[in-house]
Amino acid sequence: NAGVTQTPKFRILKIGQSMTLQCTQDMNHNYMYWYRQDPGMGLKLIYYSVGAGITDKGEVPNGYNVSRSTTEDFPLRLELAAPSQTSVYFCASSYATGYQPQHFGDGTRLSIL
Amino acid sequence: DAKTTQPNSMESNEEEPVHLPCNHSTISGTDYIHWYRQLPSQGPEYVIHGLTSNVNNRMASLAIAEDRKSSTLILHRATLRDAAVYYCILRPGGGADGLTFGKGTHLIIQP
Description:
The complex is a heterodimer of chains A (113) and B (111).
Chain A: E1 4-7, E2 10-13, E3 19-25, E4 31-37, E5 43-51, E6 54-57, E7 64-66, E8 76-78, E9 87-94, E10 103-104, E11 108-112
Chain B: E1 9-13, E2 18-23, E3 31-38, E4 45-50, E5 55-56, E6 61-64, E7 70-75, E8 84-92, E9 105-110
Parallel strand pairs in B: 1-9
Antiparallel strand pairs in B: 2-7, 3-4, 3-8, 5-6, 6-7, 8-9
């Protein structure tokens, strides 16, 4: 059981470039989340989805876009990369809300130079 | 999500019990208390959660104060692999959005 898989693991972008961070889960979870973690800090929510076709903004959505066309996949898009987006990005999923635990991927380390 | 307060860091010896405290004085009646941990260079990992009663699982125990304004995560016999940042998080029972992470407690295990 692979759980939550994120690709790529590492990436260096130039300012102004675009890229998509991929996230897929094989647990048939309806809820999926994108977080970013800056050095020495806790995770902050970027976007989340409660099911295919439904997405909503989290605490720090500016500069990012998401889509959810299938239950399994929840890609995160950076349109115009900026140095402030240098961070580690984590994708997570859960079966339901509230008390249900979230399962996290291993993260994508992104540097914008 | 309601705010939690944790010590920045704690140190313990291998094979000894560890008690990680968390204060959450503004907790509401429907908030679950969740604990996650994050090992170096990995994503967060679910540890345990509870609402009112103490909880045990294979990883840890969660002791919840009677007034629910504080809780303690108990690792019964720490190993070097338990060295991580531990996050105490409150989450509404019906909340659909994400978890609110603070800075957590950096647990150091001495051999």
